[in-house]
Specification:
Belongs to the GHMP kinase family. Mevalonate kinase subfamily. This protein has twelve helices and 18 strands. It is of the alpha+beta class. The protein binds adenosine-5'-diphosphate, (3R)-3-hydroxy-3-methyl-5-(phosphonooxy)pentanoic acid and magnesium ion (MG).
Length: 460
């Protein structure tokens, strides 16, 4: 018999056969294997839901719901190469940014769910009873695997939230993502919650703010509903989940990205969950441990655009001109692979000799991105201004405005960078030098959040 530090309640879903069940009060630290006895069948499982192959007994083991306040954060990202092509199975190289989205979650006994989204000026609340009634009309139940948002279910959510059928505006997408993840993750045990989200990232600018939002929402709801642990040892400021739990967070965040992007590749939420630098291809995540410290100038053209619309536009272009577009996607794939090879070689023997290759890859890919229809005059302007200072740039993310990245060589004189930044600001752009490679999603005690973030949350 086992005893877990926290009591658990087992919900039984039987396959209909008579059950000789041993009630388990488990007492092992969550991370150890759990042994269940069901009928005469004994087997070891490491996860929290299982099916007895003999009697189809389903044991869903849930931790007690978290009742304390906590916070989570997730990084934005920069795609070095592969945006849009990655949606069609090609490789993308992406690195996390040191700009993060923060979420504070406060379970309460008000019988209401409250979301505060100050970056987009949204503050909404619903009665849990209303949401419970909505849940009964949805097929959001999952067989232990996150399920994709079904168009009919999304229409019901839109109707419930008073959102126009084809609306893709900022608030609509954020609210729908929250409602979908809240109902799908918390299921029958809908908690009263107060959730606040605030980001250092510009939203809708190509830096993966949607993914950081989805990763934070998934991590917070999974933790508070007891489906993953709360790895915050007493007295510590931050915690990180296990690999298995990060996979669950990433899978649910991907569902959130589907609400916002329509047809996401999954690269953005992967970077948000795992952090660092990675290659993403057709759902396969490969962590890149050997990436030199690249200096990047980030420029926001401040031209608003929607990833969902841009991604759909590329898909239509591929359908319209497959013989023209597919070779372009293959070329972008080759650029990402060559860039990864060059970066790996640079770690082996650091030298400036490889930079001209990296700069040329930026230029070639930027031209390809214009060909597939995601360029914008503001991005052309950005590339022209930096080129006049001998620097090479490309758009990052969905394009159509938003952000571009400029590669800064280690030997680039700071006066050149300052002159380029001045000229970019004269275009009305906002630019800043950034560090890449920050950690993925983190759990924080609310009191340990940096003062700027605490101030925002306290003011809500
Ligand atoms: N901090 C935030 N607060 C509320 N909604 C957010 C936040 N960050 C992102 N979002 C949601 O994500 C959308 C932007 O996603 P997207 O168009 O993919 O751009 P990005 O390049 O930033 O990922 C916003 O319109 C909004 O719905
Ligand atoms: C265009 C795309 O490749 C990246 C989108 O990035 P962002 O949402 O603009 O930050 C879409 C995707 O990979 O899901
Ligand atoms: Mg996005």
């Amino acid at each position: 018999m086992y005893r877990i530090g926290l009591s658990v309640n087992l919900e039984l879903r039987s396959g209909g056969s008579p059950l000789a069940l041993l009630f388990l009060t488990l007492n092992v630290p969550f991370k150890e294997l759990l042994t269940y006895e069901c009928c005469e069948h004994r087997y070891l499982v490491a996860d929290w839901s299982l099916e007895c192959p003999a009697c189809a007994l389903r044991l869903i083991c849930r931790r007690k719901m978290m009742v304390k306040e906590f916070a989570v954060s997730a990084p934005g990202k920069v795609i070095l190469h592969g945006e849009h092509a990655v949606v069609h199975g090609k490789a993308a190289l992406a690195v996390s940014l040191n700009l993060r989205t923060f979420l504070r979650i406060r379970p309460n006994k008000s019988g209401k769910v409250l979301i505060h989204l100050p970056n987009i000026g949204t503050r909404l609340s619903w009665d849990v009873v209303q949401l419970q009634a909505l849940l009964s009309t949805l097929q959001v139940y999952k067989n232990d695997e996150p399920i994709s948002p079904h168009p009919e279910e999304m229409e019901k959510l839109k109707e419930f939230a008073g959102i126009e059928k084809h609306s893709a505006d900022t608030e609509s997408l954020a609210v729908l993502t929250f409602l979908y993840l809240y109902l799908s993750i918390c299921e029958r045990d809908l908690p009263s919650l107060d959730i606040a989200v605030w980001s250092e990232l510009p939203t809708g600018a190509g830096l993966g703010s949607s993914a950081a939002y989805s990763v934070c929402m998934a991590a917070a709801l999974l933790t508070t509903s007891g489906q993953i642990s709360c790895p915050l040892e007493y007295g510590t400021d931050t915690g990180r989940w296990t690999v298995d739990e990060l996979n669950i967070i990433n899978k649910w965040a991907f569902q959130g990205e589907k609400v916002i992007h329509g047809n996401p590749s999954g690269v953005d939420n992967a970077v948000g969950a795992w952090g660092g630098a990675l290659r993403y291809r057709a759902g396969k995540i490969t962590t890149l441990n050997r990436v030199p410290t690249l200096k990047i100038l980030l420029t926001n053209t401040k031209v608003p655009r929607s990833t969902k619309i841009l991604v759909a536009g590329v898909k239509n272009k591929i359908l319209k001109f497959p013989a023209i577009m597919n070779p372009v996607l293959d070329s972008i794939d080759a650029i990402a692979s060559l860039c990864e090879h060059v970066l790996d070689a640079m770690v082996e023997t650091p030298s400036l000799e490889e930079y001209p290759v990296l700069e040329e890859l930026f230029d070639i890919n930027q031209h390809h991105l214009n060909v597939i229809g995601v360029g914008h005059p503001s991005l052309d302007r950005l590339c022209h201004v930096t080129a006049s200072h001998g620097l090479h740039s490309k758009l990052t993310g969905a394009g159509g405005g938003g952000c571009g990245i400029t590669l800064l060589r280690p030997d680039t004189d700071s006066s050149v960078v300052e002159a380029a930044k001045q000229d970019l600001k004269l275009c009305g752009f906002e630019c800043w030098e950034t560090n890449i490679g920050g950690p993925g999603v983190l759990l924080h005690s609310s009191s340990s959040l940096k003062a700027e973030v605490q101030q925002v949350f306290e003011g809500l």
